[in-house]
Amino acid sequence: MKLVLSTLALAAGLSLGLAGSALAQAKPPIKLVHTAPLSGQLASVGKLQGIAIDLAVEDINQAGGINGSPIEIVRFDDQLRPDQAVLRVREAQQSGALAVLGPMSSTQWETVAGTLNQLKIPAINMNSNKPGIQARPYGTRLNTPDDVAMPEGLAQFLKIYPRTKKVAILADVREAAGKSALAEWARLAKASGLEVVGSIEFNSGQTDFSPVAIKMKDLKPDAVLAAIQSGDALKLARELQIQAVTMPIFSNMLLWPGVFPQTVVKSVGAQAGQWHVLGSSSNDESTGDAARYRKFVERYVAAIARDSVLAQFQPPNVANASLGYDAVLLVAEAARKQGIDGGMPVAAARDRLRDGINGYTDFSGVNKIHFSAQGDGAIRIGVLQVDPASSTWKFARPR
To answer: Which member of 81, 164, 337, 361 has the greatest number of CB atoms within 10 A?
Structure first.
């Protein structure tokens, strides 16, 4: 079922004093579809991403839109399900959208890649981290895939915890980025001279994590290398506290976005500090322009405070939300350079946008992103740790 949550105000609703407003009013809008989980376990992640997207659309429209055409956002709820993601992409194509922002998970991105190219509609993915997903020429992702991020991250993690000799691997094998991470963590551990004392597999969404916690305790690793999403990690954190299991846990990017830092601190207090994740930005810093990032964070946090549902999660976890902002900037800049506006036939506009996006090797928005020939983004990676004092991710560094 299609769920249209909001259509941003067009240029007619903007301040009359803004340059470019009259031009934006004179041309038809350009439609972008944002497809994300807006219900279910990760609904908050989809809504948080939507806030970042809306901020970028607001900025672009206030500056005159794309060659005089304002951007219009339409939202679809794909429930984080691969089959629903395919349906949402088909609906986006039929609705005349210039491009799709999303879907979110690696399983969804892998599933829709062929559909994007069959339907010839550009899409920008902001979260997928499973390596080797081929979505070009119409699909591009901004997030750093695990085969680039995990080696860099593990090297840093071992500098922070130099006494780590034995590790266990914990992975959500229902999610594509979890299943692939299981093998990648094992390969990297061996290459780093670590002993893998055991692997623990689970399915995302399961309710009972006590067997997982017990097995982690029995294996007695120095650290755990993980691939786990926020809802499951919270359930596991509670069980780990019950079982008095306190070794460091280091996850791939599945755990980075969402409301995990705030909720895990409320749940287990200081023990939340055992959780670490791969990432490229926190609430305080990123790899891009510092002043521009601080401004984004301030506006993002203020927008969350105005949302009656999301406002309960304080302080907000900015995580990779800025990639939603950058996705819109990338589409707008490429479309502007390609001479696209709302009056152009949509099939021609999509092909021009495809060519424009594929022409980027590097892009500077809120983040600095380098693109591979396969259309995968790469951003400088660090190790983030839950800080119980602030209930946020903080960059962890060797002591």
So the answer is: 164
Q: What is the dotted CATH code of the domain comprising 11-143+287-366?
A: 3.40.50.2300
> Domain map of the chain by residue range?
11-143+287-366, 147-279+382-395
Q: 190 by DSSP, 3-state: which? A: helix
CATH class of 147-279+382-395: alpha beta
Q: Is 139 helix (H, G, I), strand (E, B) or coil?
A: strand
Q: What is the pLDDT of residues 279-336, one digit of tens each?
A: 999 999 887 788 889 999 999 999 999 988 888 878 888 988 999 999 999 999 999 9
Predicted model pTM: 0.85
pLDDT digits (tens, 9 = 90+) for 363-375: 999 999 999 999 9
247 contacts 328 by C-beta, under 8 angstroms: no
Assess whether the region 11-143+287-366 and the region 147-279+382-395 belong to the same CATH fold.
Answer: yes
Q: What is the spatial distance between Cα 6 and Cα 35, in angstroms, rounded to a whole number?
A: 12
User: pLDDT tier at 149 (50, 70, 90 boundaries)?
Assistant: very high
Per the model's pLDDT, the better-predicted residue between 342 and 7 turns out to be 342
Q: Give the pair of three-digit tokens for residue 11.
A: 């240029």
Within the chain, strands assigned E span 30-36, 71-77, 99-101, 123-125, 139-141, 166-172, 195-202, 223-227, 249-251, 275-279, 362-364, 368-371, 377-378, 382-387, 392-395
